[in-house]
Specification:
With 256 residues, this protein is an all-alpha fold. It has 14 helices and no strands.
Amino acid sequence: MLMHHLRVLPLLVRMHVRSKMEYRGAFWLDRLAQILSYGSVFATIGILLARFDTLGGWSWPELALLFSFQLLAYSLGAAMSFVQLRELEELVRLGTYDTLLVKPFSPWAYLVFSGLNIGYAGHVILAVALMAWAVLSVDFTWSVWSASFFIAALISATLLTGALITMIGATALIWVRSNHLFSIFFGFWELTRYPLNIFPGGIQTILITAVPLALTSSVPVGALLGKPIPILGDWAGPVALVAGPIWVLISIAHWR
């Protein structure tokens, strides 16, 4: 059964990509619009830094690294989950989800890979370009250990993002209506573009525990750069690394 899944998944992805690339001009114009949209967000942060020099003790290149890390982790995780799980509500409401249950295939795998969202290409392009500049500009001495931690933390943040989105979408299997929870998710997600220490203690606690999106941005990046991390302290680095796998296990149990 596992080998059957592995053989079918590339076919599902290829079919979906071909359908999305039918109108290539429109596709790339939409990606350009995404780049401009998120670029304007970063420009807003730049305006703040031009006036105040630092934000919560973070300099301009450090905030660029934080922003690009958060955007890239979200893009990779959401490409495997967001649109697919957002549509699950309608599948459940209309009863068409039942057709997936009679297929000799994992419903989750079919949903995710038949709708792999290549539309996040614009996010990835901007995030990688900005991250490359930030890595070269930040006042930090890179080593094999720090580079390995950075990559591992990025993978963990990607897994955590996908896990949280999966849990929100899977709630439709019980409540039918679950998409309103995405508004809460993105409300907190937008806060994670900024250092955790600029927020009140209550919000800091929420962003580390109940809605642990700080573990996809300022916690791992702050731990890498040696910034003081509220609540977690010296445990920030290890927690950032294990958060993704742990929440994946939680999301699997929630889905089941």
